[in-house]
Amino acid sequence: MSQRVILVIYDIHDDDLRLKVAAFLKRSGFARIQKSAFSAPYTPALLSEVEAGLRRLLRERDRYDVQVYVMPRSSYEERIVMSRGYTPEEGEELLI
Amino acid sequence: MSQRVILVIYDIHDDDLRLKVAAFLKRSGFARIQKSAFSAPYTPALLSEVEAGLRRLLRERDRYDVQVYVMPRSSYEERIVMSRGYTPEEGEELLI
């Protein structure tokens, strides 16, 4: 099992670009953990792929902030989650 | 210097509750790194305080997901940031 986890969090103003980023992360094998947060087991290849893909999608775009973290699996698994009445996909379908 | 960093990411449906959570994190000494993401140097006391404060704010509320990570400082400092035309406070003032 991978010893590290990739976490991607983003805030993207444009609806269309935001949906494209989410779709790209899903295609790359990431799991959605919040509407604007995705995680996947770390591999060097996946990190390279996701960084390159995000840079390609964001090229010549504006008003965005995307952050990619690589953390130990323990940091990820021991995170504190407070959640109620929440599904990460909620709302997105309305925009498609 | 603290060897770890606390990262808080959230998705909160209610505007008023979302502003309260942001204000609480700022008061607790967190820095805003995205509209819905805050970070601070880890101490056991701060982690306890922030968890208790968030649980208090979220009590009897609905439609939220809040996640609190504690990661090595290296994971935080080596994160990849892609950002353009972005300020994390943008948009929030409109709601106040």
Automatic annotation (TrEMBL), chains A, B:
GO MF term set: hydrolase activity; metal ion binding; RNA endonuclease activity
EC number: 3.1.-.-
Keywords from the UniProt entry: Antiviral defense, Endonuclease, Hydrolase, Magnesium, Metal-binding, Nuclease
A biological process term (GO) from this entry: defense response to virus
Gene3D superfamilies, per database record: 3.30.70.240
Taxonomy, superkingdom: Archaea
InterPro entries assigned to the protein according to its UniProt record, in alphabetical order: CRISPR_associated_Cas2, Virulence_VapD/CRISPR_Cas2
Keyword Magnesium: yes
Coiled coil: none
Pfam families tied to this protein: CRISPR_Cas2
Family per record: Belongs to the CRISPR-associated endoribonuclease Cas2 protein family.
Function: CRISPR (clustered regularly interspaced short palindromic repeat), is an adaptive immune system that provides protection against mobile genetic elements (viruses, transposable elements and conjugative plasmids). CRISPR clusters contain sequences complementary to antecedent mobile elements and target invading nucleic acids. CRISPR clusters are transcribed and processed into CRISPR RNA (crRNA). Functions as a ssRNA-specific endoribonuclease. Involved in the integration of spacer DNA into the CRISPR cassette.
Subunit structure: Homodimer, forms a heterotetramer with a Cas1 homodimer.
NCBIfam families: cas2 (TIGR01573)
Name of the protein this chain belongs to: CRISPR-associated endoribonuclease Cas2
Species per Swiss-Prot/TrEMBL record: Thermofilum pendens
